[in-house]
Design brief:
Blueprint lengths: L1 H9 L1 H18 L10 H14 L21 H12 L5 H26 L3 H11 L1 H6 L9 H18 L2 H14 L10 H15 L3 H24 L3 H10 L13 H18 E5 L21 E2 L6 E5 L1 H15 L6 H18 L16 H15 L4 H20 L11 H14 L6 E6 L11 H9 L10 H6 L2 E6 L12 H6 L1 E9 L5 E7 L12
Parallel strand pairs: 4-5
Antiparallel strand pairs: 1-3, 2-3, 5-7, 6-7
Subcellular location: Cell membrane
InterPro entries: LipidA_mod_glycosyltrf_83, RgtA/B/C-like
Organism: Candidatus Shapirobacteria bacterium CG08_land_8_20_14_0_20_39_18
């Protein structure tokens, strides 16, 4: 017993790190196999990757961004393809991959915080990352941006090491990891000017050599090359879309009624306070978009919606403002030994927030995923500076405050929130549709959602199981596909709707005629098989 006590005393940081990792595993993997969150983005990505694996329809485009007609490179798809293949196309495997990367970020941020600031900064950074509710929510399920904090963190580390040691290997590794980040979310593209600056800095100041500099360009080109190939094949479609989007005068600059300074200040405050002191709650307690108005966050308990496709909101606590004030204070009046990491971190944050707020389109708080590691690292520095005090009382107060912060976040975790639908329901509906879909004719699928917060009605979640495990491929989910379908399956999750009188776009575009069959599952999900108005099969109509 004494030996164990002595070991824990000598290795208290590693012991705490292990505890944080175990907590993170529980928070991220609880109920993960039920596939509780499988909405449009997740099912679309899984379907595209399934078609790459089984149908050999290789893709040059990655996920579509929130910017209309613009796409990311496809390396996220290339990453999850072997994972989906190894799991025999079970989409839960992609959730597990995302959760694993989320857990892996904890030892990574522990190591990096200790490296740039010294021990025990890593304990405070890793502990916060393990339990911060927004981070937990986003890193426990599949979504292309959700692994971005890990890869952008590693990118930052190699940038730091390059500026510290001026070695080519760190320079190239930074560009390599950043190149991969470009496939995860368009927020990462905001940092391109900073990498251009780093490249010219290396050219003029460090004189790394032409091969190294060309190598960095080559690495970035490799990660965006699928888009160039697509452009050549399709008459520069993406370039035309970008030109329309950015130069039509409505998407650049802060939103009407919000000046840039206010928007910047609001975002900066929210970025720190939500990650450090956010209290997560179920339901949209605020507008879905993040407006950037100070009045939207400076009301006690007024939340900010943070996840675009799931009804979660977060309100920060006032003590989060105090922690932010201390971080800013110690950043300004810092020991000289922290100068390099602090300069790099604050450039990362200020540039990222400022340029993000120049976007005038719909903006959601999770767009800041590419910045999340920076406030967490600065929180670690604050913890280290206070912990380094020689006064036992101050160390005791800090330890108690940090423990209370961990407990606060664990108290308000949402991992035990139940959803009414799981993977078995998706499989059951998919099987019914596959068994009753026409062998030769065309069909499509639409959904009448039970959840009011779900905006997608094109049933991509159900069509994944219909196509993958039932072997029946519906037409795609664009308006013309519904117009061209001969049969429409309507999945009524409420079990109480009249699909023929529904105003849902997908059903209206199909032009429904009559219900020709219907089935009900154990969860009272009703599946209707509907013919077109101009093509009603005789003697095969259910009398309503």
């Amino acid at each position: 017993m004494n030996r164990i006590k002595k070991f824990l005393t000598r290795n208290w940081e590693l012991s705490l790190l292990l505890v944080f990792i175990l907590i993170a595993v529980v928070l991220r993997f609880t109920n993960i196999t039920s596939l509780n969150f499988f909405t449009f983005d997740q099912s679309r990505d899984a379907l595209f990757v399934k078609r790459m694996i089984i149908d050999h329809q290789w893709r040059l485009l990655g996920t579509q961004t929130s910017l209309p007609g613009m796409y990311l490179p496809p390396f996220y798809y290339y990453t999850i393809a072997p994972i989906l293949w190894l799991s025999k196309l079970n989409p839960v495997s992609i959730d597990i991959y995302s959760a694993f990367i989320g857990v892996l970020t904890i030892p990574a941020i522990y190591f990096i915080a200790n490296k740039i600031f010294g021990r025990p900064a890593g304990i405070f950074s890793s502990g916060l990352f393990a339990v911060s509710p927004l981070i937990v929510e986003l890193t426990r399920r599949a979504w292309n941006p959700n692994t971005l904090p890990f890869f952008i963190l590693i990118t930052f580390y190699f940038i730091y090491m390059y500026f510290k040691e001026k070695k080519l290997k760190y320079f190239l590794l930074a560009f390599g990891f950043y190149g991969y980040c470009l496939s995860l979310h368009f927020g990462a593209w905001i940092l391109i000017p900073l990498f251009i600056f780093i490249w010219f800095f290396a050219l003029i100041k460090d004189k790394l050599g032409i091969l190294g500099l060309l190598g960095a360009i080559g690495i970035l080109f490799f990660f965006v090359s699928p888009l160039f190939i697509f452009e050549i094949r399709h008459n520069f479609f993406l370039t035309q879309q970008a030109k329309i989007f950015f130069f039509d005068g409505s998407h650049l600059g802060p939103k009407t009624g919000v000046n840039l300074l206010e928007s910047f200040s609001t975002s900066l405050i929210a970025l720190f306070t939500i990650l450090i002191s956010g209290k997560i709650m179920v339901g949209y307690g605020a507008p879905l978009e993040f407006t950037g108005r100070l009045s939207d966050i400076f009301y006690l308990n007024k939340p900010i919606s943070v996840v675009a496709q799931k009804p979660f909101s977060i309100s920060f606590q006032w003590w989060g403002l105090g922690i932010l004030a201390l971080i800013i204070f110690f950043s300004l009046f810092k020991p000289n030994k922290y100068k390099l990491p602090l300069v790099l971190l604050w450039i990362w944050i200020i540039w990222g927030v400022l340029i993000s707020r120049m976007y005038g389109g719909s903006f959601f708080f999770f767009y800041y995923l590419f910045l999340f590691p920076a406030p967490i690292l600065l929180f670690g520095l604050l913890g280290k500076i206070v912990f380094d005090s020689k006064k036992i009382l101050i160390k005791t107060i800090l330890s108690l405050a940090f423990a209370l912060l961990i407990i606060f976040h664990l108290k308000y975790t949402t991992i035990h929130e139940k959803t009414w639908r799981d993977i078995n329901d998706l499989k059951e509906v998919g099987k019914i549709i596959a068994l009753n879909a026409p062998e030769n004719g065309t069909f499509n699928i639409a959904t009448i959602q039970k959840d009011a917060d779900r905006w997608d009605r094109n049933a991509v979640d159900y069509r994944y199981f219909t196509e993958t495990f039932g072997g029946k491929r519906a037409l795609d989910w664009y308006p013309q596909d519904y117009q061209n379908a001969e049969i429409l399956f309507v999945v009524d999750e409420s079990g109480q709707s009249d699909p023929l009188s529904s105003k849902i776009m997908e059903i209206s575009d199909f032009n429904p005629g009559q219900i020709i069959d219907q089935w009900t599952t154990g969860k009272n999900i009703v599946i209707y098989k509907i013919s077109k108005k101009e093509d009603i099969p005789k003697n095969d109509i259910i009398n309503q």
